[in-house]
Design brief:
This protein has 530 residues and is of the alpha/beta class. The protein has 21 helices and 17 strands. The structure holds adenosine-5'-diphosphate and zinc ion. Zinc ion binds next to helix 15 and helix 16. Its cofactor is Mg(2+); Zn(2+).
């Protein structure tokens, strides 16, 4: 007599309606669920907000036994489990935040078959006692969430994930479903190899988020630019502002508050209670702007985030896509706005040079940064570039990104490039010196600053040969030389050095097309005042 629905409905559909209260599956969900219910392995690529959780939760409920979910998002497990319990799903988790008693209780529930879903931190599976525990119960499936963490090529590698390939050896008959929101072709291939999922069926959803307007602007005074954006286009809207450092988060939040915007800080340096309180306010109240490091956002499900702003350059296109993807989950128009400048490149290089790990690791980080720079400096449609990066060639232009709305003109920057590169070359050859962009720009502009005079740089033949461009335009030139691999940044002080390709420009064997920054930033056609 309850709402059993149409007897022709599948168990999965009935579960979706009865347990989760939704009417219908979305996109690939149904195909994925049916495949896993039938015992098949799956590799699922779906953008953030696409609805990955149901893809393993429903099969776990429909199949006999306990669904074991491996997730690195330890901080979210309690919330996820609470949410499932509120729906009447018997869920539990095991991770390092628990004390012995809590752990024992969950283990007992598992062994007694009293759970539908068990969330595990990946490091738990390195512990033999956990494996023995799993042997004592019946497992319906393994779900490997955030599966890109297994890929060394990716941007979020976690060594504990490598051990997950052993699951299949130990429990060969249990179906596995690996899920991720970020995967280029290379990462996808690496996931399949490392998790022994070569035979798994792949479900690749479109990564396009048509309601998000992508905009990347040259950084001038990032906080003021942000304020302008909020005041003209996002009055009273909820949004996330990402900064690289804790200090940047604190300062930006204080700046916004002092200008009458309800902003809250979030970073790992705040105590847990403050973080939780700020997060709760962001989720429950309207129009809160969360200023955060990338520590914020994983698994946060707030549908009406109207904008995501980056005040610092993300480390990779994957990271950028994931972070901007938190905007507009409700499908309504939203903005992804990034301010980026030369200093960002210098800073990121410094971080890479100083990072732990071997050369190969640093090289990968460098490649991720280069791809991000290429996205910033492209004259093509941002969305087309993004989708192409994720192996999904789309149309030529989307009509909803800054380059489509305000097409940047290009100019022949070959002469400017030659001037800049020869200044770098002369400093290195004649003076055995390396300098950052600021000093070289001063030299080209013929500015007799104290530092120029002190180093006797006004006697260089390149002194004053670049007055046709402004300092800001020269910074644009440098950014593009970096993005095109014609110049490189190194060391603690962000000094500039030539690359192998620089010689082609200096020898006039290579043209250098450049993007001219639009005079006025692209803006959505709205009731923008002033
Ligand atoms: P992801 O893990 O891919 O980021 P989630 O699984 O968190 O996405 O789902 C995002 C949101 O969409 C959640 O609020 C979820 O409840 C909702 N959702 C997922 N599938 C459906 C569906 N078939 N019908 C309605 N809402 C859904
Ligand atoms: Zn476009």
């Amino acid at each position: 007599g309850d709402h059993a629905g149409d007897p022709r409905d599948s168990d999965a559909l009935r579960c979706l309606r009865r347990v989760f209260g939704y009417d219908a599956f979305r996109g690939d969900q149904e195909a994925i669920v049916e495949h896993v219910v039938a015992g098949g392995d799956a590799l699922v690529l779906m953008p953030t907000g696409g609805g990955k959780s149901l893809c393993y939760q429903i099969p776990a409920l429909v199949r006999p036994g306990v669904g074991v979910v491996v997730s690195p998002l330890i901080a979210l497990m309690q919330d996820q489990v609470d949410a499932l319990r509120a729906l009447g799903v018997r869920a539990g988790f095991l991770n390092s935040t628990q004390d012995m008693d809590e752990r024992r209780m969950v283990e007992a529930e598992f062994a007694a078959g009293e759970l539908d879903l068990l969330y595990l931190a990946p490091e738990r599976l390195r512990v033999e006692s956990t494996l023995r525990l799993l042997d004592r119960g019946k497992i319906s499936l393994f779900a490997i969430d955030e599966a890109h963490c297994v890929a060394q090529w990716g941007h979020d590698f976690r060594p504990d994930y490598l051990a997950l390939s052993a699951l299949h050896e130990r429990w060969p008959d249990v179906p596995r479903i690996a899920l991720t929101a970020t995967a280029t072709e290379a990462t996808r291939a690496e996931i399949a190899t490392r998790l022994n999922l070569g035979g798994a069926r792949q479900f690749v959803a479109s990564f396009d988020r048509p309601n998000i307007q992508y905009r990347i602007v040259p950084k001038d005074d990032a906080r003021k630019q942000l304020l302008e954006l909020l005041r003209t286009e996002h009055v009273g809207d909820a949004g996330v502002v990402y900064c690289l450092s804790r200090r940047g988060v604190e300062d930006t939040a204080a700046f916004l508050v002092s200008h009458g915007i309800e902003a809250l800080p979030y970073h790992a340096g705040l105590d847990a209670a403050t973080r939780a309180a700020n997060q709760a306010r962001f989720l429950r109240e309207d129009g809160i702007v969360m200023v955060a490091t990338i520590a914020f956002g994983m698994g946060i499900d707030k549908p009406d985030v109207r904008f995501v702003a980056h005040l610092d350059l993300p480390k990779s296109v994957e990271g950028y896509y994931q972070e901007t993807g938190r905007a507009g989950r409700d499908g309504l128009p939203s903005t992804a706005w990034l301010a980026y400048g030369l200093q960002d490149v210098v800073q990121q290089r410094k971080l890479i040079d100083g990072s732990e790990g071997d050369d190969a690791h640093r090289r990968r980080l460098g490649q991720h940064l280069d791809a991000m720079l290429a996205l910033c400096e492209t004259v093509e449609c941002r969305r087309a570039r993004l989708l192409a990066y994720f192996g999904q060639p789309g149309g030529a232009s989307c009509g909803n990104c800054d380059t489509c709305l305000t097409p940047p003109t290009t100019w022949d920057g070959t002469i400017a490039a030659q001037k800049f590169l020869s200044a770098v070359y002369r400093l290195a050859r004649e003076r055995r010196q390396k300098f950052g962009a600021g000093q070289i720009i001063d030299i080209l502009l013929g500015k007799k600053t104290a530092k120029v005079v002190q180093h006797d740089h006004d006697t260089l033949t390149v002194f004053g040969i670049g007055t046709e461009l402004s300092a800001a335009e020269w910074r644009g030139v440098v950014r593009q030389l970096l993005a095109q691999g014609l110049l490189a940044v190194e060391g603690e002080y962000g000094t500039l050095v030539l690359t192998d390709a620089s010689g082609e420009v200096l020898g006039s064997r290579r043209q250098v097309p450049m993007r001219r920054d639009p005079a006025r930033p692209a803006r959505a056609a709205k009731s923008a005042k002033g």
